[in-house]
Amino acid sequence: MPYKYLSGFGNDFATEALPNALPEGQNSPQKVAYGLYAEQLSGTAFTAPRADNQRSWLYRIRPSVCHTPYSPVTAASDIVGSFGVGSKDSHCVSTPNQLRWSPFEIPETGKVDFVAGLHTLAGSGDPSTRTGIAIHIYAANASMENSAFYNSDGDFLIVTQQGRLDIQTEMGHLLVEPNEICVIPRGIRFSVKLPDGPTRGYILEVFDRHFELPDLGPIGANGLAAPRDFLYPVAAYEDVDGTSYKITTKYQGRLFSVSQGHSPFDVVAWHGNYAPYKYDLRKFCTINTVSFDHIDPSIFTVLTVKTSVPGVALADFVIFPPRWMVAENTFRPPYYHRNCMSEFMGLVSGAYDAKAKGFLPGGGSLHSMMSPHGPDRTTFEKASVDALAPIKLRPDGLAFMFETSHMLSLAPWALDKNLAGGRVLQDDYYTCWQGLEKHFDPTKPEGVWADKK
Ligand SMILES: O=C(O)Cc1cc(O)ccc1O
Ligand SMILES: [Fe+2]
């Protein structure tokens, strides 16, 4: 499969797999070229201001509506849709505890595809009122066959951790490898193949608005993620009839499916600004202190979803990429911290500056609103005496954070102590801070660390 992309975050694209399949100068001609149907896919209200308005026009072999009625999927699922604690459906739990998970298991037996391999960890709000977010992981070992998925509840930002995802979408193909992310907006049908076999990763789902590049303020016109590095698929279609396709949607947190006798990937041409995209995190132009002190992690924001309050994100996607550390006279790891936001972290590879052990690739941690957290004892002690030479921090490491202004509720699966025979949820996480010693000595204004170098 040749993967071809169009570039530029939020551009208005036009792409066709057959010459002149796109109508000239209008969206809905009486007769569309090649006998195609025209269909609009709206990603914002019709009346959203022009700067926010997102929609695409799809020219396809059949309109999407040619399918059997939706019926609930009866197979057991670890997906949660509504996070109001106490709501009859939700079974979610609120806990301010600092939580950490060892690498989430990838199933070794049976065939588990991307949809069956979705597990919700935490979330807030409810898609029915377009408030909130959800955090899921996926752990799968099989490609989706003759099936597609779309999310009615919101947009998915997918962080691949192990294995590439070969994603066929209505707009074309995306090949996404670890160190890359992709965003599949609400409603867009996609099917995931696993060219490398077993796979794992993380998903940030937002129930309202869409991901945007952060404003750069005094940074200026350049830096962080560059718009031109966001890649969108070119139109690619298949004309397959007579095979039964199952299309599953997550709708208010529940799965429903329809069937149809033709491929849903029959879009010959499309134009517009509502489409899936991918981004290589290695292209992120990292900015940080060249003098002193630890800069807040918002400096590493790749994408953000705004709320109506200026500067307050519904969710930020933040990375901790390889970078030079040069800060002088500075405690360089993350500071001890209590936050009015909730912080979920994952690790794609390597290790993370605040934790000497226990936070592993494919695992995760959650530090909830106002729950204290920071470096473990080993990290604190080492960083308190380390020589402050310039160092290249973890050239192969990539950690990330989903940070949200909402309080999260925990899905039952996330707190299941028996996951993988009790090897996932770390009961003893809190102990990494228990040994932090008292160093206070009122007779030593210069502190105690000078003696310990
Ligand atoms: O590890 C964390 O908790 C994330 C984090 C990183 C950082 O560099 C500063 C603050 C912060 O919350
Ligand atoms: Fe933090």
Structure, briefly:
3% of the residues lie in helices and 34% in strands. The protein is mostly beta strands and 453 residues long. Strands 1-16-20-13-10-15-8-7-28 form a nine-stranded antiparallel β-sheet, with no helix packed on it.
Describe the structure.
The protein is mainly β and 453 residues long. It contains two helices and 28 strands. The protein folds into two domains: 68-264 and 274-281, Sandwich (Jelly Rolls); 282-413, Jelly Rolls (Sandwich). The chain has a nine-stranded antiparallel sheet with strand order 1-16-20-13-10-15-8-7-28, with no helix packed on it. Strands 6-25-24-27-22-21 form a six-stranded antiparallel sheet, with no helix packed on it. A four-stranded antiparallel sheet has the order 2-19-4-3, with no helix packed on it. Strand 17 (241-251) and strand 18 (254-262) form a beta hairpin. The longest helix has 9 residues, at 377-385. The termini are far apart. The protein binds 2-(3,6-dihydroxyphenyl)acetic acid and fe (ii) ion. Fe (ii) ion binds next to loops.
